[in-house]
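Q: I'm writing up a methods section and want to include an example of the input and output format. Could you take the sequence below and give the corresponding predicted structure tokens, formatted cleanly so I can copy it straight into the document?
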Amino acid sequence: MSGSWSHFDHGADIGIEGRGRTLEEAFEEAALALTAVGVSPDAVPAERQMGFSCSAPDRELLLVDWLNEVIYAMSTEGLLFGRYEVRISDDTLTARGWGAEVARVSERPAVEVKGATMTGLQVRREGRQWIARCVVDV
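A: Here is the clean output for your methods example:
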């Protein structure tokens, strides 16, 4: 089974969840769920690549930091990402995202994500699968 992402209801905000065979894949899928809050990741052409890096003392905080790095790039650079590649070593995450400027995406974002939160925050292994989830503020 390859990775997957989904959303879950949480009042006025939106929960995102990534699942994968590896921790890295779960983080990649969580970032795709983040993109999908606004637009379909499939609608985002891979015209530009951006690097990311962050560190945190545990996996849960690393997920929040990772997602907030992506949100920051989306906001300050005017980008959307449709694909991610994540590497995690100890408490450090390095990643690449492929995407395009918002104006180049065929869909217009439905909402703007303001930040990843500690609400509903979980990073855990369930059987053969990793799950990475939290609520994002919209």
